């Protein structure tokens, strides 16, 4: 493969001079065209980019994937020769047409520009085409979710497993201390395009290795492993699209990755991935997925569940097969497979592991909106689970109410006592918890400056409750409230 780094460096300079960033494109398109493009409708965006400025031309060529006039590029000060030399475009008569999709990436916090992702041209609904078997997808909702989940801490040694076009490695490059990123993929074409993403983004020194799962790095350890893996649960042995299907049965790819991660992590190291898992008739999903973990603190979160028909429809739309002659047969094969396996639903979520000698495991469902990026506070979430297990009201323990709590009281107007008291988080995971008088009173007074014992005695005296009962109640309920982030140990 020829060295594209120098022409890609020149293209990067042209992109940046034109303001070809997420913020620049968002401002160019406006809310209506931007919203339509998010739904894969390009007509409003084409109408919004007819002016001939460098930003409009680059957006049309590399995001909307339509040819542009070569003379218009020249008039805008863009050198088409660099685009051709970089392998991003090719001449077509008097026009230049895109060979690849090149899109800007926004930083995880949404406050700036992170780099660029080079991928295969998007296959949009209604085009009459389906992706090639080795199709490499660009940045999307899943890659964005993973980038926002990854823990915010400096690291020395990172593995991006199943790198695809390299989105996670681009996001993580600035977090190295300094160190090395290793990016792996089973698809050679993905590694080629990832190398282009890195060159176009100025992401230097990434090690690229071909292979499945952890085989390319067996025997090595990392501070951080991230993976947006081929988690799609397809009919047995199906591996039509390498970007989404592993060919392993059921949810086995995610299970194997979770099981193998501890031996690949440094002490205190993290493994974070997106996953799908099966809901099997008669087996709680928490029990199935919880059995995957060992040797690590684990936080497994289910964000959504689809029934088998919804799931098949989702991925048939993803590959633009809806409405094709094969659509009904593929749909039927998917439902047949789920019926034989006793599958009642498929869960979508994320898994965070942290290598630990005394693992704490939390498996839960979170459907509410949460503050992003989760990576900014994921470490404190795991610490909360561990601290909850060690908590006791004795021995001078101190706790404080978490910042940003609000208390809601529900009951008939004028009633002396509320029927229900709710503590609600206004930040982070935004949980809500029904609490009793003792917990509500503690939330109002404990700031970590005093041991909890005298506070509980004071609450007992003020409420007329038995001090022993107050202490026993606090011992029973506070660990869960600590684990949920309503209180913090000091």
TrEMBL record:
Pfam families: DUF7059, MTS. One of its GO terms (molecular function) is methyltransferase activity. Keywords: Methyltransferase, S-adenosyl-L-methionine, Transferase. The keyword S-adenosyl-L-methionine applies. The keyword Cell membrane does not apply. SUPFAM superfamilies: S-adenosyl-L-methionine-dependent methyltransferases. It comes from the Bacteria. One of its GO terms (biological process) is methylation. Residues 18-98 form the DUF7059 domain. InterPro entries: DNA_methylase_N6_adenine_CS, DUF7059, Euk-Arch_PrmC-MTase, SAM-dependent_MTases_sf, Small_mtfrase_dom. Residues 151-276 form the Methyltransferase small domain. Belongs to the eukaryotic/archaeal PrmC-related family. This is Class I SAM-dependent methyltransferase. It comes from Actinomadura nitritigenes.
């Amino acid at each position: 493969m020829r060295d594209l780094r120098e022409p890609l460096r020149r293209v990067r300079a042209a992109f940046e001079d034109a303001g070809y960033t997420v913020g620049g494109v968002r401002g160019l398109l406006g809310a209506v065209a931007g919203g339509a493009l998010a739904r894969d409708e390009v007509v409003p965006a084409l109408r919004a980019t007819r002016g001939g400025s460098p930003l409009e031309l680059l957006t049309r060529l590399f995001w909307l994937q339509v040819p542009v006039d070569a003379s218009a590029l020249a008039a805008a000060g863009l050198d088409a020769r660099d685009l051709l030399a970089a392998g991003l475009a090719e001449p077509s008569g008097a026009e230049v047409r895109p060979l690849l999709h090149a899109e800007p990436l926004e930083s995880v916090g949404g406050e700036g520009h992170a780099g660029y992702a080079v991928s295969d041209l998007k296959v949009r609904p209604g085009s009459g085409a389906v992706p090639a078997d080795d199709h490499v997808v660009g940045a999307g909702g899943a890659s964005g979710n993973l980038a926002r989940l990854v823990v915010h801490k400096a690291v020395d040694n990172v593995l991006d497993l199943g790198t695809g076009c390299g989105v996670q490695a681009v996001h993580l490059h600035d977090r190295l201390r300094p160190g090395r990123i290793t990016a792996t993929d089973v698809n050679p074409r993905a590694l080629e395009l990832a190398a282009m993403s890195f060159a176009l983004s100025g992401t230097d020194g990434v090690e690229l290795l071909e292979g499945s799962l952890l085989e390319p790095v067996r025997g090595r350890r990392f501070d951080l492993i991230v993976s947006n893996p081929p988690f799609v649960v397809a009919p047995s042995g199906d591996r039509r699209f390498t970007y989404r299907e592993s060919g392993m049965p059921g949810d086995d790819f995610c299970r194997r990755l979770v099981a193998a991660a501890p031996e690949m992590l440094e002490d205190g190291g993290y493994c974070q991935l997106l996953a799908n898992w099966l809901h099997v008739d008669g087996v709680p999903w928490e029990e199935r997925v919880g059995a995957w973990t060992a040797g690590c603190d684990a936080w497994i979160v289910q964000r959504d569940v689809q029934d088998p028909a919804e799931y098949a429809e989702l991925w048939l739309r993803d590959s633009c097969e809806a409405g094709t002659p094969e659509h009904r047969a593929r749909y039927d094969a998917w439902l047949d497979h789920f019926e034989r396996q006793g599958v009642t639903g498929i869960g979508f979520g994320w898994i965070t592991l942290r290598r630990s000698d005394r693992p704490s495991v939390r498996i839960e469902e979170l459907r509410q909106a949460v503050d992003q990026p989760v990576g900014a506070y994921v470490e404190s979430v795991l610490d909360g689970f561990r601290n909850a297990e060690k908590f006791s009201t004795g021995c001078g323990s101190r706790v404080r109410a978490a910042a940003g709590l609000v208390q809601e009281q529900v009951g008939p107007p004028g009633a002396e006592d509320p029927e229900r008291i709710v503590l609600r988080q206004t930040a982070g995971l935004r949980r809500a918890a029904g609490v009793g008088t003792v917990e509500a009173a503690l939330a109002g007074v404990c700031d970590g400056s005093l041991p909890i014992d005298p506070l509980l005695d004071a609450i007992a005296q003020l409420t007329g409750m038995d001090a022993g009962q107050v202490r026993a109640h606090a011992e029973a309920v506070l660990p869960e409230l600590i684990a949920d982030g309503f209180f913090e140990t000091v």
